[in-house]
Predict the structure.
Amino acid sequence: MLPKGIRTFNKYVTNRVLRVFTLLPFGPFGVIHHAGRRSQKPYETVLMVWSFEQGFVIALTYGNDVDWLRNIRAAGGCAIYWHRNLYKCGPPEALETSKGMLALPGFARAILQMQGVRDFVWMKILNTDD
């Protein structure tokens, strides 16, 4: 899990820069559309997302206790904008580390292993809004 200082920097700086890459038709970056579990305020979170078994895998680089994941669990799903398409997805399901790593390309797998990332979720695609 990444240190709190890096998490804060990523939230306010890195994620805003990476948003540009979510507009590309390739690459791992996507935008998770979710609503606050209490406020119902809409949020967009930039994450690395990988296609896997009729859904998406997301590495939980900050662990399981992150707001976007708690919001999605409370709502029972979310929408993911990835490769210029919007996908409606079901609730996140925990994946074993070995299965989560299988979804990733070699470079991403190596980096996440070095960081000690062991938690992954998978979300089934329910339909596409093309």
